[in-house]
Amino acid sequence: MNTVEAIDAAPPPVAAPAPRHDWTAAEVEALLALPFAELMYRAQGVHRRHFDANQVQMSTLLSIKTGGCPEDCAYCPQSAHYETGLAAEKLMSVDAVLAEARRAQAAGATRYCMGAAWRSPKDRDLDAVAEMVAGVKALGMETCVTLGMLSAPQAARLADAGLDYYNHNLDTSESFYGEIITTRTYRDRLDTLANVRDAGISVCCGGIVGMGEARRDRADMIATLASLPSHPESVPINMLVQVEGTPLAGRDALDPFEFVRTVAAARITMPRSVVRLSAGREQMSDEMQALAFLAGANSVFVGSELLTTPNPARERDAALFARLGIEPMPS
Length: 331
Ligand code: SAM
Ligand code: DTB
Ligand code: SF4
Fold this sequence. Notes:
By secondary structure, this protein is of the alpha/beta class. It contains twelve helices and ten strands. The chain binds S-adenosylmethionine, 6-(5-methyl-2-OXO-imidazolidin-4-yl)-hexanoic acid (DTB) and iron/sulfur cluster.
């Protein structure tokens, strides 16, 4: 049989198995405990069955209402419970937001994410946010907002405005959640996720690592995300950004390999989700970011600021993507 016949006779590519929704924390913990090369090999295999491994989705984030939040999230510089020196600002005007969105689009963003430091939005706030969503959509970018907890009617209002994604993170395991946040419950988060999903809006839901949680907590968070009725379309994995004045400032940084392992476990358990290398990139080496992409991360925030903390400068990102041969993922 000559080479061409041999290739023609090659077995058809194995169809990717359907994503599972019954992952247990023990199974995910076993993934995290694999030898690093084995875990990375498995994650790359899953990643390549669903995505072009050289494409990364580019989002830009804007804080449309900053600081003065009544919640007590121990990681957050915007909580009114902590003295972080952050100047609170009221909701931006629609025109100011759209001007920022145009600048982000010109710099290559295909999705525009607007975040507000609220426990949950008041209905009058939603009117303004709905206008921002419609304006950003009219520019041709995907739209995302993260406004805190939502009722079913509020989710429907945002869906009517044409919202594409809603970010609402579970952040950690249910058992560790009370160590981090006391002004709301894990159930509150799951209820908002259900309202968002039922309104037909794509879900962006992930968490933060490096808050002092155990590996079992990271496994439990991933297993919970991967066992939601439908996998979040986007799964942001944030490395804790330690902000002076917050309770979580001053702790030992998480082992970078633990961060990469968590990305790989998210990739393996949620094969069709876009996994975002989210907060904390400013403190990561180029090598650590490259490992996260190899583990299956295929989205980043671009732009020099996240909500209130620094993000790699565009020039640094452009240099890294060029060295790695990474191209923007078409929206
Ligand atoms: N207030 C809304 C809420 O909490 O859902 C939306 C804004 S909140 C700042 C969005 C997300 O940013 C949080 O869910 C958390 O995962 C992430 N975040 C906030 N502060 C962070 C920090 N210091 N380090 C890493 N991620 C952080
Ligand atoms: C997400 O999971 N992380 C982003 C976005 N979704 C809203 C926010 C990160 C915030 C980091 C701390 C700050 O800049 O305030
Ligand atoms: Fe408020 Fe969101 Fe920060 Fe928590 S994470 S304090 S809810 S802005």
